[in-house]
């Protein structure tokens, strides 16, 4: 359960950073990145809800205060005073953190034989890996 809470916190920071980037992106790639960031924060919002509901399903109480998220999240609040390319690089780094955190949850779920969590989370990893491949190609 602890790893799910940490994953929830990281997804909440990731979500907020994406909103920040969506609002503040500029430059030549504005239209492309503005739309992509919106797509990503909508997906992150769904995942936040899914993770919180999984915690509830396991008879836990999902963290709900941003101060709690900041205290345990590896992803930090992003600075919006940067270029679109810097925003993309920050997103790539966040994806790497999320991949590691999902894998931590999968280890915990395997040990506790939590089939529901094992059913939900593997797709998160493959999706994040694919997004990173595309964002790295964007930065070339």
UniProtKB/TrEMBL annotation:
PROSITE patterns: DPS_1, DPS_2. Residues 2-139 form the Ferritin/DPS domain. GO terms for molecular function: ferric iron binding; oxidoreductase activity, acting on metal ions. It comes from the Bacteria. InterPro entries: DPS_DNA-bd, DPS_DNA-bd_CS, Ferritin-like, Ferritin-like_SF, Ferritin_DPS_dom. It holds the Pfam family Ferritin. Gene3D superfamilies: 1.20.1260.10. Belongs to the Dps family. PANTHER family: GENERAL STRESS PROTEIN 20U. This is DNA starvation/stationary phase protection protein. It comes from Ancylomarina longa.
């Amino acid at each position: 359960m602890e790893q799910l809470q940490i994953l929830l916190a990281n997804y909440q920071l990731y979500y907020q950073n994406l909103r920040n980037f969506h609002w503040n992106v500029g430059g030549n790639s504005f239209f492309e990145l503005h739309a992509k960031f919106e797509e990503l924060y909508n997906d992150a919002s769904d995942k936040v809800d899914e993770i919180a509901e999984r915690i509830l399903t396991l008879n836990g109480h999902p963290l709900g205060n941003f101060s709690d998220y900041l205290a345990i999240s590896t992803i930090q609040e992003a600075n919006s005073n940067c270029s679109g390319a810097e925003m993309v690089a920050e997103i790539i780094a966040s994806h790497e953190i999320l991949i590691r955190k999902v894998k931590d949850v999968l280890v915990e779920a395997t040990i506790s034989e939590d089939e529901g969590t094992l059913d939900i989370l593997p797709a998160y990893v493959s999706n994040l890996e694919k997004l990173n491949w595309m964002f790295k190609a964007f930065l070339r």
